[in-house]
Sequence to fold (318 residues):
Amino acid sequence: MFTKIIATGSYLPEKVLTNDDLSKIVDTSDEWIRTRSGIRSRHIAADGEETSDLAVTAATRALAASGLSVLDIDLLVVATTTPDVIFPSTACIVQDKLGAKNAVAFDIQAVCSGFVYALSIVDRMVSTGQYKNALVIGAEIYSRILNWNDRTTCVLFGDGAGAVVVTRSETPGILATKLHSDGSRRAILNVPGHVRNGVVYGDPHVHMDGQAVFKMAVNVMADVCNETLAMANMTAADIDWLVPHQANVRIIDATGKKLGVAPEKTVVTVQGQGNTSAASIPLALDTAVRDGRIKAGDVVQTVGVGGGFTWGSALIRW
Ligand code: UT7
Fold:
């Protein structure tokens, strides 16, 4: 048995924050942000809008495209670094808001690699026959963990959610997945502090050594793609669409070059969304499915990288 993605959905909050808007908040410019990252604008969740709300809308759209009923879903996994609350899991909140009464629900925390981690776990749970229909969601509200006085981080991130519906299938499906972690590199990208009982310990905002993250990302993304390609007896020439984590166009370009995938075969959505962490890959998948680029039978290479450090790839036959 195999696991197949049968539908996608996504949601971006209504409010758009442009680079020019940001230049009124911090000492930056549209020119700097565009040339260093490729980002032009990002979406910001409204007050009162929670990560679970973004996830529910993305999931509802994916479900509508799948033709399945919410009651057909027996597994619901949310990848997020910005949960509504410490507990319950955002997945349990989404389960309730969606009415997915028959689902087992849990969160995965692997920062920007979270969606690929979740897809890999769900693949095992579905292809072994234990579960049949799953919702895999990446949803984030990074705007609430950014320091809006820190121009080195606040210009790079955005809010959003993407979802896929996967089902047990007699044909592949997910061809191969490979995950990696290196906790010894955690200092280059993290949220060092937290709030407990209203008391702030350390700094509860995103910290990043941009250049170190850049180098690490470029090095590991192509490598892990080659690992999954080898597992499936394929080469980069077999890839129809590369759907990488959307953090920076320069990282995406460098990964494509190292892997040997042409820019025309690479899905890039970071311009209008910024880095939406665990949501970025399912958001990009949904964009390319709905605009007709990704079609049935295509080989789609997804690859994520992020804080932890974590990285991983899922090679998919659409
Ligand atoms: O999901 C994974 C998460 N993160 C990433 O993937 C990000 C990886 N890193 C990057 O994308 C890039 O390193 C950045 C976009 C963060 C930065 O680009 P860079 O080319 O590495 O720039 P830099 O850090 O070397 O900074 C160059 C200059 C510095 O000024 P000095 O020291 O040369 O005078 C910074 O202070 O740009 C300055 N700078 C800014 N200037 C205007 C930093 N942020 C800004 C800003 N606006 N927002």
Notes: The pocket of oxa(dethia)-CoA is lined by residues 28, 32-33, 36-37, 112, 151-152, 155, 189, 208, 210-211, 213-214, 217, 245, 247-248, 251, 275, 306 (CB under 6 Å).
